[in-house]
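An example makes the point: we let one protein speak, the chain in one-letter code, the fold tokenised, and here it is:
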Amino acid sequence: DKFRLMAPLPWVYLTLSAACWGATNPLIRRGSEGVGSVQRSSKLAQWLAQAWYLATRPSFVVPFLVNQLGSVLFVLAVATGRVSVVVPVANSLTFAFAIAAGQVLGEPRPRFQVFAGVALILFGVALTLASAPDPTNTTSIE
């Protein structure tokens, strides 16, 4: 079956990965508010103070850790699935999850251009999946 590009498990990994990444992007943005107001005299002291500022804020740390879990799930998806499928699908799903999470969190509604961009991304992913080599054909070269 040409349309069965991967086993089910990589699809689960990549969907969960995209959900972790997309849902946490607006939360990380919110959790890092105020970091720009941290001022120190040297670049090293500035970096350390900003790192401490972020590390001591659960509103940043919790979404950051969930985001890192998404990275682990992505590695599992790449390890168990087809890179040519996993990468574009995970990236496009991340974008969709980020828009949805932003809406749930009360961020301004995206403009028409954003929805047009999502449609183009989905179209591109569909083209990528449709043109993917048949995984059952052992003579094809990727």
